[in-house]
Amino acid sequence: MILNEETELRDLLKDTVDTERGQVLDPEAVREKIIDVLVWTAVFSDSPSLRARTKKLIWQIAHNTGTTASSIHHLYMAMGKGLQPAFTVPAMNIRCITYDVARKVFRVANSLQAGAFIFELARSEMGYTDQSPWEYTTCVLAAAVKENYRGHVFIQGDHFQVNPHRDLNSEIASLKSLIRDALDAGFYNIDIDASTMVDYSRRTVSEQQAMNYTLTAQLAAFIREHEPEGVVVSIGAEIGHIGGKNSTVEEAEAFMEGFLREFQRLCPSGPGLSKLSVQTGTTHGGVPLPDGTVAEVKLDFSVLRDIGALVRQRYGLSGTVQHGASTLPEELFDLFPENNCSEIHLATGFQNIMFQYAPEPLREEVYGFLKDRHRDEWKEGMTEEQFLYKTRKKAFGPFKRRWWEMDPEEKTPILDALEERFRLLFKKLRVEGTHQVVNRYVVSPVEQRFSPREDWSPGRESPEGSD
Q: What would the pLDDT profile of 43-60 be if each residue is shown by its tens digit?
C-alpha cells in the first residue's frame, strides 16, 4: 500500500502515532501494520510532499522508540586507545531493496547482540541506485523499527571522492554540498577520499600525498563546521587509491603529518580523523574473469597490521580500513581483527547474491537493458559475462521498483542468503556481543535535524563506486 494523500496518512496513523511529533501510541501496531506502508510511501508515493513528510515521520518514530542515527567516532577513539577484545566493524553498502535487506541486518544484530556495524552508501551509488541520502536513512531506520532494534544506528557516506578529471573548485563545492545533504540526512560518519589526487611523479612521499592531505583537511574542517550540535562525525581518509599500488607506512606517516598541520590551521580545536583507509591489493568489486568468476586476490595483511599500529600508537586512530573485501574467501575474514583493521567495506558480494537468487525473468530483463543502454562499456576483449558483471550495478536505479515489488516467494531466497552472509561476517569479524560496548562509548546526538527534500540529485558520478 502506497499513500498519495495527506488524509490517507492521517487515517492510517489514527490512534497509533501522533503525527505532529512522531510519538508512538501503539508500538506493536506500528511494527505490524504501519511502518511498511510508511516506508513504501516515503520511497514511491506520487506526492513529493508526502514522501518528505513520511521520511521525517519515520525518523521521529525511530527516535521515539529508541533508535538513533549516531556517530561511531567515540567508539573508534576507544579502539585507538586499545579497547579489547579486537573486532572489525563491517560497513555494508546496500544497493537495492534497502528496507528488506536492512531488516535482515537488524535481525542478525538482535540475535547476536551486535551493535558495531555500519550502513553506508557511496557518492556514486546514490546516482546509479537512485537513492538519496534521506531515502537511504529512511529505509534503514524503518527497518530498525520493524525489527524492534533499539540503539545506535551508524549510517555512513562512503567514498565522498574527489574526481581528478573535473575542475577542482567545482568539485570541492559539489562535495561540500553533498556533505551538507548527508549531514541533514543523518549520515554522521563520512569517508573523504582524495586519494585520487596522490601524485606518484613527485619526488618525495610528502609531496606525493600533498594534495590528498590538503583537500582532506579542508573537507574535514567543513564537516566540523557543519555537524549538528552534540555530534562528532566520524571522519575517514584514504591514502591509497583502491586498485592501485599497496600503501606503505611511510605514506601513512607523510599523510598524517601533513593532514594534522593543515587541519589544525583550519580547525584548531576540532577532533580530526578516526580511521585511515589503505590499499592492500584489492579492487572494488573484484576482477571478473572471462567466465564471470572473480580472480583470487593476494591481500597483504602486513599493510593493515603495520599502518594500523602506526596510526593507533602515534595518532590515536582506530586503525586501518579495508575496501574491496566482500568477494574475498570466507577464511580470510577471521584475520582482519587480528591485524589492526577497525573497519571493512562490503558491497559487491551482497550484489552478487541478489543476482544469483533473483528470478530469471527479472535477471534477463536487466541484462537486456545493460546490453542496450551500456553497450559502450563493453570493451574489446571482454566476454559477455565480464561485461554484465562490471555493469549490472547500474541497473539497480532503473529497476528499483521491480526489485521492491518482487513476490515474497521471489524475495525470500535472496533475503535468506543475505541473512546467512551477514551472520557469517558478524561472527568472523567478532562484532557479536558488541551492543553493550557501543552503548558504553557512543553518545546520542543532542540535535535531531533530519530535513528531507525532494529536489535532490546526486550530480555526476565520481570516477569509481564502492566495493
A: 999 999 999 999 999 999
Do 49 and 132 lie in one domain? The reply is no
Which pLDDT score is estimated for 18? 87
Say yes or no: 259 and 291 in one domain. yes
C-alpha dihedral sign at 95, 97, 103, 104: negative
Q: Is the pLDDT of residue 242 over 70?
A: no
Residues 35 and 113 in one domain: no
Question: Does 393 map to a domain?
Answer: no
Which pTM was predicted? 0.94
78 shares its domain with 13:
no
Domain shared by 103 and 197, yes or no: yes
Same domain, 40 and 183: no
Does a structural domain hold residue 221?
Answer: yes
Number of domains in the chain: 2
Domain with 60, as residue range(s), is 6-64
